[in-house]
Amino acid sequence: MLTREAIAEQLEAILGPERVITDKEVLKESSIDRYRKVQSVFGIYELPIPAAVVKPADAAQVAAILRFADKNNLNCVPRTGGSATEGGLETIVENSIVIDGTAMNRIVKIDPVSMMATAQCGVNLEVLENRLREQGLTMGHSPQSKPLAMMGGLVATRSIGQFSTLYGGIEDMVIGLEAVFPNGEITRIKNVPRRACGPDIRHIIIGNEGALCYITEVTVKLYRFYPENNRFLAYALPDMKTGLDILRNVITTGYRPSIARLYDAEDGAQHGFNQFAGDNCVLIFMAEGPERIVTATIEGITEIAGTCKGWTAIDPRAIENWFTNLNWGPEKVAQEREFLKKNLNTGFTTEVSGNWDCILAIYENALARIKKDFPHIDDLTMLGGHSSHSYQTGTNMYFVYDYNIKGDPAEELEKYHVPLNAMIVEETLKAGGSMVHHHGIGKYRTPWTKEEHGSAYYLLDSLKKVLDPNGIMNKGTIYPVEE
Ligand SMILES: Cc1cc2nc3c(=O)[nH]c(=O)nc-3n(C[C@H](O)[C@H](O)[C@H](O)COP(=O)(O)OP(=O)(O)OC[C@H]3O[C@@H](n4cnc5c(N)ncnc54)[C@H](O)[C@@H]3O)c2cc1C
Question: What are the residue ranges of CATH 3.30.43.10 in the chain?
Fold first, then answer.
């Protein structure tokens, strides 16, 4: 067993001292992610502190770090934007190495002919998107964390953005990529529009959450950008069932608005929707693209909504204002920390998915279960949800819960967040849905990984055994810790 000092020294010999960080504060912050945002605000760091944070310059350096870690049985936690919400960045093993990809931040190529962009893992999504827009192009990827997240993490978590109904999730955008495996093998999956050369091996890497390999470079599809044609529609509705019916009809009829979101009254009020929708649910659409497609999409949705009763139209300008301020950058994170510290109140989310035939049951059962079984129900200051990503066969449900933290902030996790998350996951699996829609399994939904995958867990388990036989990649993420 190497000591912390020996690990740092040997990493310095591999990478040069300027690429190895052992500053105590950086190490502490790098032992967690936003799952422990309450503890971090109060300076409570209970997990093993990593031995070092390293900032490799390229895939060859990543390979050298992984070979060293594999030989010495050291846990490695890949990291890029640091916006993870499910514990994927937690260092649960003593003397872990955090591999920070932010120095690999080059936009390698923008190709407007074959409509592709290649970027290293540490390229921030907003930076890439702004560069593309200067050329009249877009990636079409807009998670709320766009100002924070980076290409490596976005691919590693199977992220999804607000325009997903039109552009899909990141898995629909990635053409090819480069990744490094624990034995130091550097693999590159080439960029072609489609092929039938065996299974699609991109999907071993997309969504691996740093538990199988380190993503160093990504190539994604591009689209033309037509912001001047964006058009919004919004409706106030009496209940989620009416909203889900309209949503399902719009999507299954074949319309592809870029945004399709349905908020319940509680969640909508968090966004100020109660000012114009009272205590109703709110259904929002945005159409984008070439003008003729936008016009047809808006007309089609209006016609479908017209066949349902009980809604009132909302002035789309109210929605445009809300949409402009939806994303989260460093300022909002700082404001959130201030608020939490002052008010001892915070909020978390659990996002799941289900087919059209069970999503309403998932929504209703999860909320009913929390209201019935959660022992600290009086501390909840908000409980609700929304659907934000719809498909031909179903949609997601994004549960949101805020609470006052009574007692010791160190106990917040076990007292509030863990049981609330568990009740939503359990009710989702019971009703036939999937326990994670887009944040990744991280470390807090691993108790249900086997139940989620059923007999297909054999495949997931085999990948880990073959690709990471010594188990050095992000221990406790995706895969439950057995011992
Ligand atoms: C305010 C807020 C809003 C959010 N909104 C959305 C949203 O709309 N849609 C959405 O999908 N997510 C959202 N998220 C979650 C988060 O932003 C995404 O999961 C994002 O993809 C993480 O990217 P990152 O670069 O920050 O990755 P990190 O936080 O650094 O890492 C995330 C995970 O990926 C692994 N990882 C990181 N880099 C690599 C790499 N190079 N190779 C292999 N594994 C790696 C890490 O080990 C970790 O498990 C939100 C988060 C916040 C805080």
Answer: 4-102
Cross-sheet strand order for the sheet of 76-79: 20-21, 52-54, 97-100, 76-79
**378 Cα: distance to centroid of ligand 1 (angstroms):** 32
In angstroms, what is the span from residue 468 Cα to ligand 1's centroid? 21
List the structure tokens of 332: 């909002």
Q: Which fold has domain 4-102?
A: 3.30.43
Sign of dihedral through CA atoms 360, 361, 366, 367?
positive
Residues flanking ligand 1, CB < 6 Å: 33-34, 77-85, 88-89, 101, 121, 143-145, 148-150, 152-154, 156-157, 159-161, 209-210, 214-215, 328, 438-440, 474, 477
Per-residue model confidence as pLDDT tens digits over 279-326: 999 999 999 999 999 999 999 999 999 998 889 999 988 888 888 888
Q: In the chain, which segments carry CATH 3.30.300.330?
A: 330-453
The CATH number that domain 227-324 falls under is 3.30.70.3450
CATH class of the domain whose range is 330-453: alpha beta
61, 97, 159, best to mutate for ligand 1 pocket (most atoms within 8 Å of CB): 159
Specify the ligand 1 atom closest to the Cα of 84.
29
Ligand 1 centroid, distance to 387 Cα (angstroms): 20
Nearest-10 crossing angle of helices 240-253, 291-306? 140
pLDDT (tens digit per residue) in 151-193: 999 999 999 999 999 999 999 999 999 999 999 999 999 999 9
What does the alpha-carbon distance between residue 419 and residue 371 come to, in Å, rounded to a whole number? 12
- Nearest residue to 438 (alpha-carbon basis) of 350, 343, 333: 350
Domain 104-224 is in which class? Answer: alpha beta
Report the separation in Å between the CA atom of 178 and the middle of ligand 1, taken as the mean of its atom positions.
18
